[in-house]
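subagent[fold] <- orchestrator: predict structure for attached chain, return tokens only, no commentary.
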Amino acid sequence: MISEKSCGAIVLREGEGGPEVLLLRHRAGHWDFPKGHVEEGESEEQTALREVKEESGLSVAIEEGFRGAVRYSPYPGCEKEVVFFLASPLSGSLSLQQEEVSEGGWFTPEEALKTITYDSSRGLLLQAMAYRNGH
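subagent[fold] -> orchestrator:
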């Protein structure tokens, strides 16, 4: 069995009307959070920070205490784990990585839940929002 690992972040900011979440439409067609493969020698957090910067152009800060993960099989004989952290934007403007991302933007949590492709990611957003509201 092959094991793969990716990391990313659920990036939340305070918009004019309340919280907003960053979603990207990946070239494969699905809407999700920024994420990518762990490179040799990187920690999960380093991968998440790098992938958010590469895919969205944003520098973010990871919030302590939240770590969500999903597991699935992208193809027979492979199990993939994707770890997501909760993050807040620090600097930069949205600048999409054209090779991997076709669209992106900030969505209210309600819009995001309707837009996200995978149930597992919708569940992670609900967990992240509950965590954020409890702290």
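orchestrator: received. Logging for downstream: The longest strand covers residues 2-15. Helices lie at 44-56, 109-115, 119-134.
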